[in-house]
Specification:
Blueprint (H helix, E strand, L loop, with lengths): L3 E6 L4 H5 L1 E2 L9 H17 L7 E4 L3 H14 L7 E2 L14 E2 H7 L22 H13 L6 E6 L1 H12 L3 H5 L7 E6 L2 E6 L6
Helix pairs in contact: 2-3, 5-6
């Protein structure tokens, strides 16, 4: 079956502006974040014919649900018809949730040594491992085998790993993927297409 999935990250949150790593904690969208979602909604409206025929699935975390509600308003989709799926939740960073990088380095000295820009997320002593997240997003993709059209609202790190699984990338390749709040990604026919409203990013 031909299948198309649009993967979208939630809009900017207050924690994002403070440099705090949310994990599975929550903070509300900023005004800018709400505008980002509206822009993405308008872009998707031109990319998606008959939105009511699509399945909209959101992470159950508040920032994703807030984004999904705004998206539904733009698409004319009944928010009561969406599904939530915990497999789309952000990677848990355990005790590091809500902290800045400086606070993490102060509280857990040397824990970030020899890490890459993104791999450090998985050094949290009680957070999720890459393999656990990879397994849950793989399971989510497999569950869509009979669902041809999906719009999914998820999170930055989860989106990287999900796209990496879809494209058959290595761990390092997946963690190096772009994560954006001004673009979504179309997964179709074993290819990934970036769709953005910021034309100067191309």
């Amino acid at each position: 079956m031909d299948r198309t999935i649009f993967i979208m990250r939630h809009g900017e949150t207050e924690f994002n502006t403070q440099g705090r790593y949310q994990g599975q904690l929550d903070s509300p969208l900023t005004e800018h974040g709400m505008d980002q979602v509206r822009q993405m909604g308008r872009l998707l409206r031109y990319s998606v014919e008959h939105p009511s025929e699509w399945k909209v699935i959101s992470s159950p975390l508040g920032r994703a649900l807030q984004s999904t509600q705004i998206l539904c308003e733009i698409l004319g989709y009944d928010f009561n018809e969406i599904e939530t799926d915990s497999r789309l939740s952000e990677v848990s960073v355990g005790s590091w949730s809500g902290l800045t990088l400086k606070e993490i380095e102060q509280g857990w000295p040397n824990s970030l040594e020899d890490t890459t820009m993104y791999d450090w997320y998985f050094r949290s002593p009680d957070g999720e491992s890459y393999e656990v997240v990879q397994e849950r997003v793989t399971d989510w993709l497999d569950s869509l085998s009979s669902t041809p059209r999906v719009i999914a609202v998820t999170h930055g790190l989860t989106s990287r790993i999900l796209r990496g699984v879809y494209a058959g990338l290595t761990r390092q390749e997946a963690l190096s993927l772009e994560v954006s709040q001004s673009a979504c990604f179309q997964l179709s026919n074993c290819t990934i297409k970036r769709i953005s409203y910021e034309f100067d990013e191309f």
